[in-house]
Specification:
Elements: H1 8-18, E1 21-34, E2 38-44, E3 49-55, H2 63-67, E4 74-83, E5 91-102, H3 115-120, H4 122-125, H5 129-151, E6 155-156, E7 162-163, E8 175-178, E9 181-185, H6 190-200, E10 202-210, E11 223-232, H7 236-257, H8 259-264, H9 273-277, E12 282-284, H10 285-296, H11 308-315, E13 322-325, E14 348-353, E15 358-365, H12 370-379, H13 388-393, E16 401-406, H14 408-416
Parallel strand pairs: 3-5, 6-10, 12-13
Antiparallel strand pairs: 1-2, 1-4, 2-3, 4-5, 7-9, 8-9, 10-11, 11-16, 13-14, 14-15, 15-16
Helix pairs in contact: 5-7, 5-14
């Protein structure tokens, strides 16, 4: 075929604009059915799907090849496109010419497969319309995060993935042999980002993150991505302004660019609209405990971190993300400073998402008191020598600064209305899933 190929989406737009006409497309068999006289194929490419009709009287010599076509065979097709309300997308191509590029036989994905079996076949399931739609939303989310901070003059910055010590909990670190020495996979970019902040002032980064959390919940992955920022001369209130701003921007971009994908996923767009219209509530940990007690009849002892069940009950009362601030210092990471007004609490926040999605991001001001940092590290059983470089950062012109980390998979899960973060990443890694 010498004609210029166009995408299925372009072919549909062309027909919508100028009506019936000749098109040349290519893609894979999404569905197929037929009779002795007609063969109907739903062809897919990365842009959309369209029904293609093969009439036997046109292809008598090739009919056996056409009749044997199965799901995921790849084709090039030339024909006439027209509107047809009975077709899946309202348009249909009547084929005049075709070429089989790659055959397919008994494609091992069907509607009867459970989540585990689909996980085993993830390298094939990634072709599905569902996964394709999610990956397009994911691309928009990542791009929007970058664009938001670019617009504020931030600089993108990358940090090591192999590190000598952690920033979160030691037991959740993946250990590795680094030329005979014990090292770990990064849990966050933060400790190195703080060093770079003193030169660049406003930075962000997106990269892989590893946490050995023995959890099988719908919120957890062992390997995931983190979208993080670090900024100089910033307090907790300003940090939450950035956090709210980037989430609103991400949602607005997805609604602008991915409505078709959200429709494929069956997402109720009305559930996302309040995000753009309302300010995100900011409540303290103490407020959260009182609300849970008064409105959900849940009594929680002060000093405990909020569990999944408590976060979900709290968020039943809101239709937009909520900031919970000033958690107990004792249960927070070592770098989160005490609040001077109430030293038992830390100047930090978690952003909780609606619809049972849990924590979307966490952030804090950074402690610049070296002695307090040492005290916190010792209390958590960490070796100070592993943090020599981090402690030294604050010896030379320490300034107030802050930052947060956003979990893109959790944000994507929420925006797309998914059951699990496992569907928000192409090839998930959990404590029970290591391949494909």
């Amino acid at each position: 075929m010498k004609e210029k190929f166009i995408s299925i989406e372009e072919a549909i737009k062309q027909c919508s604009d100028v009506g019936k006409g000749k098109v040349v497309v290519r893609g894979w068999v999404h569905r197929e059915r037929g009779s002795n006289k007609l063969k109907f194929i739903v062809l897919r490419d990365s842009s959309d799907i369209i029904q293609v009709v093969f009439e036997r009287e046109k292809f008598e010599k090739q009919w056996e090849d056409i009749d044997k076509l199965q799901v995921e065979a790849s084709l090039k097709i030339s024909g006439t496109i027209k509107k047809d309300a009975r077709a899946p997308t309202g348009y249909e191509i009547n084929a005049d010419e075709f070429e089989i590029v790659g055959l397919s036989d008994s494609f091992p994905i069907n509607k009867d497969l459970n989540e585990e079996l689909l996980g085993d076949r993830r390298h094939l399931w990634i072709r599905s319309r569902k996964m394709t739609a999610i990956m397009k939303v994911r691309s928009t989310v990542m791009h929007a995060f970058r664009e938001y901070f670019d617009n504020f003059g931030f600089i993108e910055f990358q940090t090591p993935v192999i590190i000598p010590g952690g920033a979160e909990e030691g037991p959740t670190m993946f250990e590795l042999d680094y030329y005979g020495k014990k090292m770990y996979l990064a849990q966050t970019w933060q400790l190195y980002a703080e060093a770079a902040m003193y030169g660049l002032e406003k930075i962000y980064g997106i990269g892989p993150t590893f946490r050995a959390e023995k959890s099988k919940t719908s919120r957890h992955l062992s390997e995931f991505w983190m979208a993080e920022m670090e900024v100089s001369w910033c307090d907790l209130d300003k940090l939450m302004d950035y956090a709210e701003g980037v989430v609103k921007y991400i949602v607005s971009e997805v609604l602008k660019k991915n409505k078709k994908e959200l429709e494929i996923l069956g997402r109720d767009l009305k559930k996302l609209e309040p995000v753009l219209k309302k300010k995100f509530p900011r409540i303290t940990y103490d407020d959260a405990l009182k609300i849970l007690k008064d409105k959900k009849k849940m009594k929680i002892s002060w000093g405990k971190d909020l569990r999944t069940v408590e976060e979900e009950k709290l968020m039943e009362l809101y239709d937009v993300p909520v900031f919970v601030t000033h958690y107990p210092k004792e249960v927070m990471a070592f770098y989160k400073p005490s609040d001077k007004k109430n030293p038992k609490t830390a100047r930090c926040f978690d952003m909780l998402g609606p619809e049972g999605t849990g924590e979307l991001m966490g952030g804090s001001e950074r402690d610049i008191d070296i002695e307090e940092l040492k005290k916190s590290l010792k209390a958590k059983g960490e070796k100070l020598e592993d943090y020599d470089y981090y402690l030294e950062i604050n010896k030379y012109g320490a300034i107030p600064h802050a930052g947060f980390g956003m979990g893109p998979e959790r944000v994507i899960r929420w925006i797309c209305g998914l059951d699990s973060v496992r569907d928000a990443i192409a090839f998930p890694r959990t404590m029970t899933r290591m391949k494909p």
